[in-house]
Amino acid sequence: MNPSEQFEHDERLGLRLPAFNAEWASFSHAQQEAILAEWERIKARIPDRVKELEAGIDRLQIEAAQEDDWDRVCDLYEEIYRVASIINDLNIWNGVEPHTTAHEAELEPEPRIAEEHTTKEK
Predict the structure, then answer these.
(1) What digits encode the pLDDT tens for the residues 34-92?
(2) What residues contact residue 17 under an 8 Å CB cut-off, 6+ apart?
(3) Residue 43 burial (CB count, 10 A)
(4) Are strands 7-10 and 15-18 parallel, antiparallel or unpaired?
(5) What's the pTM?
(6) Which residues pair with 8 in a beta bridge?
(7) What is the spatial distance between Cα 5 and Cα 21, in angstroms, rounded to a whole number?
(8) How remote is the C-alpha of 101 from its chain's centroid?
(9) Which of 98, 82, 87, 84 is nearest to 15 (CA)?
(10) Are 47 and 34 in contact (CB under 8 A)?
(11) What DSSP line would sit under 15-83, residue for residue?
């Protein structure tokens, strides 16, 4: 399994998002780790993408402030709201902290506490 196959490009956000072809728990621990490593590489690009979009909003705001045509100002602010929505979604994705699930076959048994350590009387 190639971890990058578990992600699809989202045109609106401009990055790849999870698109699993199976339930998360059905992946082995090693597969989950590989997918999470790929997700961390993708997430690392989010702050740069947000900065890029914020720069675009700054340009649109300057243009709107200098515009005399009210309809054009409305169009510019509509675009600003659209881009701000993308930034919001990117920030949500940036906050996603996935984790692996436990697979019983791969778990080490819990260490047993000796009985003398569980009672107060010795």
Answers:
(1) 999 999 999 999 999 999 999 999 999 999 999 999 999 999 999 999 999 999 999 99
(2) 7, 8, 10, 93
(3) 18
(4) antiparallel
(5) 0.77
(6) 17
(7) 9
(8) 18
(9) 87
(10) no
(11) EEEE--SS-GGGS-HHHHHHHHHHHHHHHTTHHHHHHHHHHHHHHHHHHHHH---HHHHHHHHHHHHHH
